[in-house]
Amino acid sequence: MSILPHPVRPAVVLLSGGLDSTVCLAIAQREGYEVHALSFRYGQRHQYELTCAQRIAQARQVASHTIIELDLGVFGGSALTDASIPVPKPQSAEEIGRSIPVTYVPARNTIFLSIALALAETRGAQEIFIGVNSLDYSGYPDCRPEFIRAFETMANLATKRAIEQHHTIRINTPLIEMTKAEIVATGMRLGVDFSLTLSCYDPLIGGIPCGSCDACRLRQRGFQDAGFLDPAIPKV
Questions:
Q1: Least confident among 100-114, 116-130, 133-147
Q2: pTM (predicted TM-score)
Q3: Do the beta carbons of residue 126 and residue 120 sit within 8 Å?
């Protein structure tokens, strides 16, 4: 008797090239999904993260990796897309406030998830993974569980496959209640090569992290609390 192969379960995973999205990708693969990674060149000052995303996609052997060209800088209002606005450099992770910071990019996750939804329809995927986090976060409104639930409701009202074929879209957020230390520890267990990732908002030439922006501070605390050395930090 022949053994039937397991059916392919495609999923779209938003991959920035950072720590969180890479762990999220590894979790999707652990759960048996065929990953279609999706990244964006949206005018971010830290575009080196896309080089990291490409390396990660290759190392993790994803089914496909799509990079979408956008220009969110035309709207302004964010230090990540406007070089005239300085990136905040707190002295420690504890100094990062709960107010919405200037590194917030207006409606970014709403836009990214909308494009991920379109890709999911064409790939036959019912699952979208995004590495948002509501505990160790910098105050972004589009990283909250309320936002994710609302977008998922909208997604199931907006797509042909959901309406005609009853293929329910799910927005998976496996990191949303994890601390940064728990995310690091999970990545270590799943064999994530963190040396390929970039979490810095204001990297130096060659993708060297600045070491003092919000993203760097949170990453530093995560590795420290998890009891691991960060392999992405240059040795001196």
A1: 133-147
A2: 0.92
A3: yes
